[in-house]
Amino acid sequence: MHKKAPPSPKRKALSKKTRFDVFKRDEFRCQYCGTSPPSVILEIDHIKPVSKNGDNSEDNLITACFDCNRGKAANELSVVPDTLAKKMKMVEEKAEQMKAYERMLRSRKASVTRKINKIERIFKESFDDRQFTDSFKTSIRQFLEKLPAPVVEDAMEIASAKVGDPTGATKYFCGICWTRIREIDNA
Questions:
Q1: Residues 63, 29 contacting (CB under 8 angstroms)
Q2: Are 125 and 161 in contact (CB under 8 A)?
């Protein structure tokens, strides 16, 4: 003789006010995956499913997107944390990678600034009353992207030694750098 399963509890409809209150509390974001409208449609999920005697109290309700709500189905949250833990670990890893990337960019920028300052010191050995303009520093930065720093430094040493005026020296310097870039491109 087969025993019949007990009937599932009847789901009571939620009022619009209750739905809205839960959405506001959860900042209109799916509490499982973090998405929000308009990219998803939000629903109200029962933390403890109605089929397992969960009620409609706000403490038992959570904002979920359509996909997460269907994915969780009638499971209790004790079944879900593994997936959430993996997502959280991935989010933390992305944040750490972003921090590392930003540190690397700051380090590169500082390195380029040191190289530009060294080239400016070479220039000032011949023209001590002159400084590089920001636009000229931008030009040097572009040369450093295409040429090794010692090649750019040598170009400034040659230009400063051969040309007696600062404007002519900077033009000659640029000519040397562009020639070196063409030589590399043609090789």
A1: yes
A2: no
State the DSSP code for 1.
-
Q: Determine contact, residues 155/177, Cβ cutoff 8 Å.
A: yes
Q: What CA–CA distance (Å, rounded) separates 118 from 112?
A: 10
In sign, the C-alpha dihedral spanning 143, 145, 146, 149 is: positive
Q: Is residue 5's pLDDT more than 80? A: no
Beta-bridge mates of residue 46:
61
Q: Which helix (DSSP H) or strand (DSSP E) does residue 85 occupy? A: helix 81-126
Domain that holds residue 23: 16-74
Please check whether residue 142 lies inside any domain of the structure.
yes
How many residues can be counted in the chain? 187
Counting the structural domains of the chain, the total is 2
Residue 166, in any domain of the structure: yes
Residue-wise pLDDT for 96-122, tens only, equals 999 999 999 999 999 999 999 999 999
Inside any domain, residue 155: yes
Phi and psi at residue 145, in whole multiples of 5°? -75, -25
